[in-house]
Design brief:
Largest sheet: 8 strands, mixed
Number of helices: 11
Helix content: 25-40%
Order of helices and strands: HEEEEHHEHEHEEHEHHEHHHE
Distance between the termini: 37 Å
Strand content: 25-35%
Strand order of the largest sheet: 4-7-6-5-8-9-11-10
Shape: globular
Number of strands: 11
């Protein structure tokens, strides 16, 4: 898949174009990047600011998403992308994790190529096999992304941080940015019971502030519904998110053992679509 999207990629050191030679990406300045046997390539320009999700967190995310509990969210993201029928579609997901959302969008856009970017090598291994048209790249979204300017028709940010200036740089002038953020009702039944990380009630205001000057919102929809989760589902849900870092495995198991066999848990998110603000001149 890297060969199919290489014209969209850029060298993280000099910004030049890349070519594929055997199992290596090369630029004209002589910088080279080996393609891992699992199919991903690391285009980090130096030490990443964050380490990303662990292999255990990524595996838990895959288990939960494979249970189809977040399918309505994936469907809504895909619809937001299909709403902009653009020529030569190319889709980027930042903080892509297992690639489930990227795969849903690629299924909805059969002519599109996809790139999943994550700083976690564990995520990159899942991304490389997430979809036949998805390429997997290790990169840090808080530095310049290893992508050419105005290369993408769609960019996805799903439960992920956003570097608005960089997303604006890589998105085409006619492109669409789709952002999924949780509301303060998301997983509310588990927050107090299990001590999960709370969603900041000012998250929507802060999202608007980070987008200002780079993007303007053109659409926003709310998606909220109840999920019936088993204890195993709840364990995977907790283990895949930020709460896994501060809630120990032993404490998590003890709390979850006290839950009923099936719990009703609310999924509640906002999906916002943005277009780039035209540049001056």
């Amino acid at each position: 898949m890297l060969a199919d999207v290489v014209e969209l990629l850029a060298c993280p050191h000099c910004g030049g174009g890349l070519d594929v030679a055997d199992r290596t990406l090369l630029c004209d300045q002589g910088h080279s990047f080996d393609i891992a046997r699992q199919g991903y390539v690391s285009l980090l320009s130096g030490a990443a600011k964050f380490t990303g999700d662990s292999a255990e967190m990524i595996a838990a995310r895959a288990r939960f998403l494979d249970g189809h509990h977040f399918d309505p969210l994936m469907d809504a993201v895909a619809r937001a992308c299909v709403a902009r029928d653009l020529d030569h579609p190319a889709v980027l997901e930042v903080g892509a994790g297992t690639g489930h959302y990227l795969a849903a969008v690629l299924d909805a856009l059969p002519a599109a190529q996809g790139i999943g970017v994550d700083v976690s090598k564990a995520a990159a291994r899942w991304l490389a096999r997430s979809h036949p048209r998805a390429a997997s790249v290790v990169a840090d979204i808080w530095t310049q992304l290893p992508l050419r300017a105005h290369a993408l028709s769609h960019v996805l940010s799903i439960f992920a941080p956003r570097n608005a200036a960089e997303l604006r740089r890589v998105l085409r002038p006619d492109g669409t940015l789709v952002v999924l953020t949780p509301t303060d009702r998301h997983l509310r039944e588990l927050v107090d019971l299990l001590g999960l990380v709370r969603v900041d009630e000012n998250k929507t205001v802060r999202l608007g502030a980070t987008m200002s000057g780079h993007f303007e919102r053109v659409d926003r929809i709310a998606v909220e519904y109840p999920m019936a989760l088993s204890r195993i589902d709840v364990d995977s849900l907790v283990a895949m998110g930020p709460s896994a870092r501060h809630l120990g495995e032993e404490a998590r198991a003890r709390h979850i053992a006290g839950l009923p066999e099936s719990s009703t848990v609310t999924a509640s998110v906002t999906i916002s679509s943005y277009r780039p603000v035209p540049t001056a001149g």
